Amino acid sequence: MQWRSTLATTTIAAAMAGYILVARQSGDELSEVKAPAQPGYYLNQATIIETGKDGNPRLKLQAARINQNMTDNSITLQQVMVNYRSEDATPWILTADQGQLPASAKIVHFTGNVFIRTEDERLLRPEIRTAELSIDTENYLATAPGEVDFVLDQQKLSGIGLKYDMKRQKLQLNSQVHGKFLAEKTDE
């Protein structure tokens, strides 16, 4: 019985060697099949919490999906919500369809239905709406290159381009600024 398995193995090996020899003589190259790029890691329905020096939550990031790209170590986020709270900056919340974080950068790029608003009960909770927004996480500076709506209560300013200092609550619309302010009704 053992001689049959040895004969079968030898026959298969000889057939493979013959095929390779014939393929090379006829000019056909054996092509290597490369596997598709694999993600470094991925998370579904993820919540990541970063704590401050005091141990309390400082940043809470939620995403429907997080992927790491192994070719450049960048990270992509889908259906993103970021809730930021810190002692030295005004708390805020951000939502977006997508997010992109380059591997070595401290700037996060958000695209698709970007919405940001302060979460400080002492403020009137201004809101920013735009299609694209970048946040410098070291300097707490948000910038947007395109159309931006800034809404405060029933007041609205629209413009092109934005620079928003999140620590100092200082907003700058760059060009084509248009506003809509509704007067309050008084009951007299």
Quick structural overview:
Helix content is 13%, strand content 55%. With 188 residues, it is mainly beta. The chain has a 9-stranded antiparallel β-sheet, with no helix packed on it.
Task: Give a written overview of the molecule.
- The protein is mainly β and 188 residues long.
- The protein folds into two domains: 1-34; 42-180, Lipopolysaccharide (LPS) transport protein A like domain (lipopolysaccharide transport protein A fold).
- It is 13% helix and 55% strand.
- The protein is built from one helix and nine strands.
- The chain has one helix at residues 2-25, and strands at residues 42-51, 57-68, 75-86, 89-101, 107-118, 127-136, 141-152, 155-165, 170-180.
- It has a nine-stranded antiparallel β-sheet with strand order 1-2-3-4-5-6-7-8-9, with no helix packed on it.
- Strand 6 and strand 7 (141-152) form a beta hairpin.
- The model has no long low-confidence stretch (mean pLDDT 79).
Give the percentage of residues in beta strands.
over 45%
- How many runs of DSSP E, i.e. beta strands? 9
CATH class bucket of the largest domain: Mainly Beta
Order of strands, main sheet, comes to 1-2-3-4-5-6-7-8-9
List the helices and strands and how they pair.
Layout: H1 2-25, E1 42-51, E2 57-68, E3 75-86, E4 89-101, E5 107-118, E6 127-136, E7 141-152, E8 155-165, E9 170-180
Antiparallel strand pairs: 1-2, 2-3, 3-4, 4-5, 5-6, 6-7, 7-8, 8-9
